Each structure stands twice: as structure tokens, then as C-alpha cells.
Amino acid sequence: MPCKPCEGLIPDPEEPPGCDEPPPGNCTKTDLQKQLDALVQCIASEESAKAKLQADIDARNARKEALGNLIKDVDGIVTAYKNTRHTLVCREDCLKGFHRDITTVFANYPRAYLGELTKYINHLLCLLEQEKCCQKNLDGKLTKVTKLIWEQQQAQKEKDKADQAFTTIKDLAKWLDTQFKELETLKDQIAQSLNDIDPQKHKWAFYLFYWKFVPKLCSCFPYPFCCERDGGHEPQGYKEQPPQGYKEAGQESQQYEEHHPKPPDHLGCKPGDWHPSNITDETLRALICCAWEYSLKQAQALQDATHRVTDATTNRDAIKARAEADAASLDDRIKSGLNNVGKPAPTSR
Q1: What is the pLDDT of residues 173-230, one digit of tens each?
Q2: What are the C-alpha distances in Å from 59 to residues 66, 155, 265, 299?
């Protein structure tokens, strides 16, 4: 068996589709079979190219419609967020104030006591993660997926995440409201437990605060995507240099910088980036453009992975049909070609 069993049998994915049919030859069955094999390979190549072209057209039509809707809605999206931002910032300040107050409360507890609680809670959390890891490992052993299908599935997951990010950013106030409601519910539970005379409730408050409330608000406030500057370019929606009419130095330039500060190196990549205090209406507009580009990138990655699956499927079906036909005609083809192979058989005297 050769190292590349499909070499010469299916179209090279690196080469453009084409149809190179062999010459007619001497019109033997072998020569005719070569022409038939070439036609089968040609059809497979063109069918694959046709499927990919149609997929590209469909994807572009979908993007055209989505982009048209975005152009129509973007100003309204920014205005709606701008009108609710002050309320969201107030809720954020309240939650951060609660964080400072409860941190002070637990700072007065004995360190050894809190250390014992921490060790116990972390032990249970580690055991749960070990169980999840074991389950994932066993699932992998019982589920056999080819590399191409796995790549397509991963690309689909990334596209779904990108689509969700784009949907989220178009109604950011609603998403932030959901995040704050979870935190406010935890805040009430923590306060109620700390105000209880039962010391066991204080232990529960300790767990809720440091393992639920603090990570969500401070350490890793969830965000739908990360928009970093690529190759030194500013995120879309920002202008680093003053527009024409502003001088490079002097009062006019200073006035421009005060109202248009230099953008950060990232948008939505670090803890706290998705707090409303850090997202102005200008930042939101830049995030919308970045989310759109992120969605396009993941959609293209899925399309490329799907094209690879389409190529393999088309080639497999073509080779299967060819193998079945060759198996059925094998004896006839061998018999027909024997006269053209080797020296004539010796005759008996």
C-alpha cells in the first residue's frame, strides 16, 4: 500500500479544478477505461467546485442582508445604550461598594479559620473538576470522529460563539442587566447570611462571596469576545490622529486630545472591560464593528472547514463508484490487456 493511497485517484485540493482527458489511444478496453476514469475524476472535481461556489454565494447573500440591517440599526443601538448607561453605571458602583464592604468584614475573621474553609471548598471543587475531566476523557474514547469532521464541529462552535457575541453587543444594555441581576441576587443572599445569628450561615456567605460574587464582578467578569489591536492598527471606530483642521501642537490639538483620548490596546479583553463605566457610546460603536469582523472571520473559518468536508465526501463517493465498476469489470480488463504485456507466451512443439 503506498504512503499516499489516493494519489493520482482524486483531484489535488491545492490545484484549480480541471479536466485533462487522456488521448484515445488504440481504442482498447484499457484505453477506454482510462478515459472513463478521467471523466469520473473530472466530474468529481467540478461537482466539488460547484458546491463550494454555491456555498460562497449563499454566505455572501446572508452577510449582505446582515450588513444592511446593521447599517440601518447601528445608530439606534448606540442611542438605546446611551440612554440607559447612567442607570447601569449606578448599579455597577453599588455592587463595587458592596464588594469593598464585605471584603472589610471578612478581613476581621481569623486567617486560620478562613484558610480552613478555603481548603475544604477548594477540595470539593477540585474533585468535581476531576470528575468532569474523567467524563470528557471517556466520552472521547467512546466517540470516534474523523479529523475533518472534528475541525468542522469546532469551527461551528466558534461561529456560534461569534454570532452570539454579535447579538449580545447589539443589545448590550440587556446583557449587562442580566449580569447585574445575578450579582444583585448574590449580594442579597450574602447580606442575608451575614446578618443571621447562625455562624454556619457566615460560612455560606464566605463561599458565595469569594467563589461566586468576586470572580464574576472582579476577576473574570464574563465578556462575549475580545477585540485586540492587530498589527498596530486601531480598532475600528477610533481615530488616533486629529482630523484635518487640528494642528499637531498647541491649544487646538490639546482640546482634541481631551475629547478624543488615545484608544486602548484592547477592547473587551481584560477584567472590567465590559463594565458600563468603561463602555461609552463611542466604545460601543467600535465594539459593534469589531464584533461584525469577528463574526465574519469565524464564518469564513467554518466555510473553509465545510469545503474540506465537501471535497472529501465528493471524492469518496466518486472513488466508491469507480471501485465498484472496476471490481465488476476486473476480469475482462485483465484479459483484454494481457496481449499488451510482456513477451508472447512460448508455443509448444
Answers
A1: 999 999 999 999 999 999 999 999 999 999 999 999 999 999 999 866 666 678 775 5
A2: 11, 15, 31, 8
Q: Is residue 305 part of a domain?
A: yes
Residue 291 CA to residue 298 CA, distance in Å, equals 11
Q: Does the residue 30 lie in any domain? A: no
Spell out the residues 6+ positions from residue 295 whose beta carbon is closer than 8 angstroms to its own: 159, 162, 163, 165, 166
Q: Which domain holds residue 306?
A: 87-228+267-314
C-alpha cell at 88: 447601569
The alpha carbon dihedral of 249, 252, 258, 259 has a sign of: negative
Paired with 228 in beta bridges are: 266
HEC profile of 80-101: HHHHHHHHHHHHHHHHHHHHHH
DSSP character string of 250-314: SHHHHHHHHHSPPPPSEES-STTTTSGGG--HHHHHHHHHHHHHHHHHHHHHHHHHHHHHHHHHH
What is the crossing angle of helices 29-107 and 330-337, to 10°? 130
d(CA 185, CA 120): 25
H or E segment to which residue 13 belongs: none
Confidence of residue 345 (pLDDT cuts 50, 70, 90): low
Residue 15 is assigned to a structural domain of this protein: no
The three-state secondary structure class of 228 is strand
Q: Mind listing the pLDDT tens digit for each residue in 301-330?
A: 999 998 888 888 877 887 888 788 888 888
Q: How far is CA 57 from the centre of its chain?
A: 22
Question: What is this structure's pTM?
Answer: 0.71
CA dihedral 63, 67, 68, 71 (to 10 degrees): 180
168 — phi, psi (to 5°)?
-65, -45
Query: Does residue 276 sit within a domain?
Result: yes
Which residue is it, cell 465590559?
274
* DSSP state at residue 147: H
Residue 334 CA to chain centroid, in angstroms?
53
Number of domains within the chain: 1
**Residue 173: CB partners within 8 Å, gap ≥ 6?**
80, 81, 84, 85, 88
